[in-house]
């Protein structure tokens, strides 16, 4: 049941704080993160991690690679499952192979974990469906605890994947004792704040609803960001594309001048993820270059930014992951509002299925 929401997607966006609370239950202690599904002794001998997935789950994997390198200091690489299995990959025999899948049935991801297992790697699945094919293959599993996700466009499962990866990175960092006490405490404090961050603010939803009508026509959308906000840019573009059928792409803000800027004009809407916590000045200068080419700019930021045609004001946080989750809600709602205005069924976008069991 949609419980008063217009679409399951909307309901699932609003459910995110509850999902995140479920994920943290029993895992967020005073002094440390606990993950009973894993043991520190299991992780300690592992020398690298490969994260593998498709679609939105791939964007979670990419986000996770930043977190794992930063917080656990393990070398992390990311693979698109459909590419991985055909390119004769060379894997670290002491590595951990992590697959991420909402459904647990994605054919390419399933084959990827089989391949890694056959090469003797330790395997871990992050999955929302217990007893799915991927869970059955994996040596260890972290269930996502997101509840059934009905919308084809993944929202709460993505936030669950990212939060679970953040916990994994911190847990692993604890096991390897690589974080300073101060850094560790800062992460725990941020984790405690994450639920509030994902609460949809009526002011923001209303603003996105009103803004969405300005962006129904044009050449398309650029989502740009740096660091953690690059995978978020990819996810914002995917979400918009899959339910609105408008062209959208996500790019690292620093790549603009190497190619995408060639497209810039007033009919190209640039959604700039301008996080105060993360290379703000660098992103700002990338955005200024686009503005000089007359691009229409929509800035998601805490700051005033005079070059922006529209600003979506977010709350200030000093931790990048809190800014990440705050902006995630914005890009999800923006995609949904644009698609609804276009008259699309956002729960069942054309040509897409919830579970992709063929390659
Ligand atoms: O079930 P999975 O997480 O393995 O699915 C992977 C993709 O098919 C999926 O994330 C797809 O991109 C979504 N429709 C995105 O919203």
TrEMBL record:
Q: Which E.C. number(s) belong to this protein?
A: 2.6.1.16
Q: Report the leader peptide range.
A: none
Q: Where are the transmembrane segments?
A: none
Looking at the keywords, is Chaperone present? Answer: no
Q: What sequence ranges are listed for the domain SIS?
A: 39-178, 211-349
Q: Which UniProt keywords apply?
A: Aminotransferase, Glutamine amidotransferase, Repeat, Transferase
Reaction(s) this enzyme catalyzes, per UniProt: D-fructose 6-phosphate + L-glutamine = D-glucosamine 6-phosphate + L-glutamate
Q: Which GO terms describe its molecular function?
A: glutamine-fructose-6-phosphate transaminase (isomerizing) activity
The entry's protein name is: Glutamine--fructose-6-phosphate aminotransferase [isomerizing]
Residues included from the entire protein? 273 to 631 of 631
